[in-house]
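thought: fold this chain, then report.
action: predict
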Amino acid sequence: MAAAKPGLAVKSIKLSESATASDDIWRDYKGFAWIDPAASESWDYNIKIARDAWSRGFDEINFDYIYTEEAL
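observation:
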């Protein structure tokens, strides 16, 4: 999802010698991008997806497999 919604992605902060920061998308050692699970925008997006699924007839929506990269 981070590739499709880069605004929700965990950002990489790289400090150069001039102490300027870059907001490039952070990627793990396998090259995967992750959404920031602590950002309220991520929660809002997940809720939007759940409401859409519910409106289409899904009777169960699980959020039990939302992890941070460190948990893998």
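thought: worth noting. The first strand starts at residue 11 and ends at 12.
final: tokens above.
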